[in-house]
Amino acid sequence: MSQAIAAHLPFSRRRGIYTGDGAALFAATAIAVMIAAALLAGAVPISFSIVTVFLFAGPHNWVEFRYFLSKMPAHWGPLRGFFVTAIVGVVGLSALFAAIPFIGQAGHWNAEMWGMASAVWNSLLLIWIATLAVMRGRQLNSSARRSRVTQPGANANAAGKWAWAIPVALALIALVWMVPQAWDVGLVYLHPLVALVFLDRELGRRKPQWRWAWRGCMACLPMALGILWWRLADSAPLAGQDMLTMRITRHAGADFLSGVSSHLLVSTHTFLEMLHYGVWLVAMPLIALRAAPWKLQSVPLARRSRPWRGGVIAIVALGGLAVIALWGCFLGNYAATRDVYFTLAIAHVLAEVPFLLRTF
Description:
Layout lengths: L1 H6 L3 H4 L8 H21 L1 H27 L8 H28 L3 H40 L14 H14 L1 H27 L1 H12 L1 H12 L10 H9 L10 H26 L18 H27 L1 H11 L1 H12 L3
Helix pairs in contact: 3-4, 3-9, 3-10, 3-12, 4-12, 4-13, 4-15, 5-6, 5-15, 6-7, 6-8, 7-8, 8-9, 8-12, 10-12, 13-14
């Protein structure tokens, strides 16, 4: 009887991979977004960049913050050192990043001094990341030791996979001092990919039957980028000498990668940013949040006590108001608001680091 029933199931389900629970629709949607983003980014990169930042920059930060709230334990206990180090790093590095332009302009820095300031900041960033990685490794090692007591044979080398953190950080610090702008441009293109890793980890925890479909979609990403680069490799630089166009091309690394078409650079960055926004605004609320983002039942801090719940509600509400205010500022002066946004948005980039480490 069981064999007869199995014969009528889809082949993938007989293998333990479920196709009837939305995996196929999820994969089709992801591919559709990827194709649409690549076409728009390649055809109208400046306009697409302006529209996507206007529509999605603020809301994606709010959803990302809401996700991080759901991952923050109500009581830190042995994690206190890790979270304190994370918060100090996010606040301190963000403040320094925002202050450097004012300090440099007041001090009339030359190009060499700007490069040195960038190298110092990036070195501090890498030291902070390596410190968090080592602390995460120690936490895993401590958990493994406790597991051996209750589960003989459990992995005792959980911290071993973090041994790369210090030598890699030292190697990158050397690169940062040799070519400071290379690391800055690298971060611009690497940051959108972090969202893809977050989604992969959440799928592994909550929707493992969808993970094969997601990874199949991500296997198409290099192909999409390859086609985009092939089509735009010889394209003319983007027309327009207005300040907004120049800021967008500079943000994509056109000043540093002067031998590469600015059309290709802006299209690539905008394409990756659209995937980043799609993950945080659509996929992560669907997969990772167990309730609508404005419902706080899944936030441990909100369950800690009534005052904590009030504080969490206030912070989430203020975040929503900040999104509306950002839209208003974009309408008033898009170029200036974009500059301010990308300066302050470094905080959410940094905040991703500790939570990403804790997914492993």
